[in-house]
Amino acid sequence: LGDPQNLKCVTHNLHKMLCTWDVSSRGRHGQTDFCYSTNDLTPQVCFKSKERRVEIPIPESSITVTIKSSGTAFATKEFVIHQKDISFFPVTPHILSLTPDFPTSTLNLKWSDNGSVFPYGLDALWQIQILRKESMEVVTQVTYYSKLTHEDTILSWNWTSDIPLECTSHYVKIRCYVNATQFVGPKDWSDWSPAEVIPGKDTEPGESGVFPLDPVVAVGSDLTFCCVHEEDQHITNMSYGSKSYTMMQLSRRSHAIRVLNASVSNSSGTNVVCILENGLEGSVVFVGYAPDIPQNLSCETSNLLTIKCTWKPGRPSGLYGERRTKYSLFERTSGKNISCEVSEASRDHVCGFPVLPDQKTYDFILGVSNPIGQAQSSLLVDITQRVRPNAPEKLTVTGNNSTSIQLRWFINGSFAEIRLLCQIEISSSYSERKLHNVSMPGRKSSTYTAQLNALHPDTEYQLRVRCSAASHFWRWSDWSKGVEQTTSEA
Amino acid sequence: MAAAESPSTALRRRDLCSRGIRLAGKMRADVVDLLDAYVEQQGLDASASVAAVEGVPLAAVERWDEQTGTQRLLENLAAYRAFRALLAQMLEEQREQLGEADVGLGRALAAVLLQVSAFAYHLEELLRLESRGIPGEEEEEDGPPPPPRLSLFEQKLRGLGVLRELAQWAVRSVRDLRQLTKPSPATGAAPGLAESP
Predict the structure, then answer these.
(1) pTM of this prediction?
(2) Which residues in B lie closer than 8 A to residue A272 (C-beta atoms)?
(3) Does the pLDDT of residue B2 top 60, yes or no?
(4) Which of A96, A128, A168, A341 is the least buried, fewest Cβ under 10 Å from its Cβ?
């Protein structure tokens, strides 16, 4: 009687092991002497223990344990523990945080890998369980791999739910397995951690409504909407747009519908309506497209004061108002960022950017974004090679005789740093349309003149002018308004 | 017994009342059209039952027959001021949510808002005619306290409730103004506001 029995040793960290044993009924309340030695040469190490559990280092190979229980009758028992008899499973992992992001229905889990207690470089496996509803049904179980680095590392993992987190409570548990290949004893998973919970709205007193509330999603998404209601309220119908859907019960206060492959919504969104016995709850979902990559991004200037960039937006997003696609023009060299006022309805997309002092080359990034996605296009341009002046104005005949006509016109713009090339179109009933090119130094918002010679006397001429940059031709301006002039008689 | 009003005042009031009746009639027709367009554009069910919307004055009134002319005008004025603020907010939300997506609805909403404002001014004219102070003009500057931020669906339902109630009010206003033009049973002359039941 009172014999120590069932000696078991377990390790959680591959350094120390926790040995526990039983004592038959009569000797249960007395103190015990626990002595061990790794081999015959080393002296025994002894402990007194009332709880019948002792933590000692893991032996290289085996140890001899002597347990003397001092209850009503002294009983001594000897055990030999080999490393293969010691079982190893990590301590239960500790969840540091479980953070919901409701708009994306994503849970972020953070936990410590407790790596400091283990040798460097061991592989660890983590099983993460997601459970749902009051009945805590397992929704998914995922295995996550990590490498222990002999330091406590905070690990992070995200999970996106297929139903909104508001709809019902979500629980997360985690357990660990360390692949200690050198350890010869039996290895096993740790215990599951206590479940961390993100309570659903269906657990909040007085809360009701359809969730998610007013989301923006991509065309083709599969959507789940739930109606949270008071327990005594009966739901008569849940519809998406004009169509009713079969409901799934998530809890006593939460019912859901599943909409597959959502199509683009109209401008005011698609209503998700939950009709209750004495009330109406609803949400509005906006289904649209992420912005396309802008095509044909092109930038030019008409006055070397403002740069005008244009592009083809691609497929309309189907989103309007505060959810519309927004554009910004970022110039890398100067770091200047301009948000563009682009109206949804207008066909042409234009954005202005100031010509900066002492900067000719512009490294543009056109950024496009809406709640569903973003895209960008880039363009590197020397703006002095992208001059397309405004149409010349106030074309005037300033003088003439029988064979020549002097012209003057005005061009708005700051062209002092470039030469201009202007082309005068000369038409008359006498001869075919002729083009007369003239080049001149550019100036700042100035008038320019030219003289046409070798004309026919007493002849009516129609004249108009257009201009461009003389070097690095880019595009002609529009033609000026025409003028008519008759040369004098010879 | 209030002193009988001068013939010119009575004539002026009858003129204002009949013009008010025409304005209310036109407003009602426009509100009904707007309501149809709104229901369609917002993807709502025309038959949806909408709980009483906070801040929307109810057209239904008990003992309508017993109201004095002044009460009628004052209640009408308070109602259309409230509608002016509600419609202005609807217009703001419309721009915020839809931008330029549905310019037609925005214009129709703005047109009704204009009519409501004009009708409110018309009612003030009638009250001034009776040398009655225009109530609450000082508070008007600050306007009603901003309503709580509603979800988009709640905004849609509120809009539905506002337009439905405005259509009812336009009908009531016609009846109220007609009531003001009725001759008083005793004198046979059109009654001063205070007297007219």
Answers:
(1) 0.82
(2) 153
(3) no
(4) A341
> Does B65 reside within a domain?
no
From residue B183, alpha-carbon distances to B24, B68, B191 in Å are 21, 14, 6
Q: Would you say residue B141 lies in a domain?
A: no
Q: Which residues of chain A have pLDDT under 70?
A: 1-2, 25-30, 40-41, 70-74, 344-345, 347
B104 in reach of chain A (CB within 8 A) = no
For the domain that residue B99 is a member of, what is the CATH number? 1.20.1250.10
Between the CA of residue A163 and those of A124, A208, A246, A346, A389, what are the distances in Å? 30, 16, 15, 37, 57
Q: What is the pLDDT of residues B62-104, one digit of tens each?
A: 888 888 888 999 999 999 999 999 999 999 998 888 877 778 8
User: A254-259 and A223-228 as β-strands: parallel, antiparallel, unpaired?
Assistant: antiparallel
Q: Distance between CA B131 and CA B134 in Å, rounded?
A: 9
Distance CA A480, CA A410 (A): 10
Whether residue B176 contacts residue B76, with contact meaning beta carbons closer than 8 Å, is answered with yes
For residue A12, what are its two tokens?
Answer: 């959680």
Long-range contact set of residues A101-104: C-beta below 8 Å, sequence gap at least 24: A102/A164, A102/A165, A102/A166, A102/A212, A103/A212, A103/A215, A104/A160
Q: What distance in Å separates the CA atoms of residue A323 and residue A338, rounded to the nearest whole number?
A: 19
Q: Considering chain B, what percentage of its residues have pLDDT values greater than 70?
A: 82
Number of domains in chain B: 1
Whether residue B99 and residue A210 make contact (CB cut-off 8 A), yes or no, is: no
Q: Are B87 and B113 in contact (CB under 8 A)?
A: yes
Contact B43 A270 (CB under 8 A): yes
**Position B193 in a domain:** no
Decide: A327 and A368 in contact? Cβ < 8 Å. Answer: yes
- Give the ipTM: 0.82
Q: Chain A closest CA to B47's CA: distance in Å?
A: 12
Give the model confidence (pLDDT) of A7-59 as tens digits. Answer: 999 999 998 999 998 877 655 566 788 898 887 667 888 888 888 889 998 88
Structure tokens at A248: 């799934």
Which residue in the set B48, B51, B96 is minimally distant from A321, CB to CB?
Answer: B96
**All residues at 6 or more sequence positions from A201 whose CB lies less than 8 Å from its CB, including other chains:** A166, A167, A207, A209, A211, A228, A254
Domain assignment present for B64: no
Residue of B nearest to A272 (CA): B153
- Touching check for B40 and chain A: CB below 8 Å? no
How close A175 gets to chain B, by Cα (Å)? 41
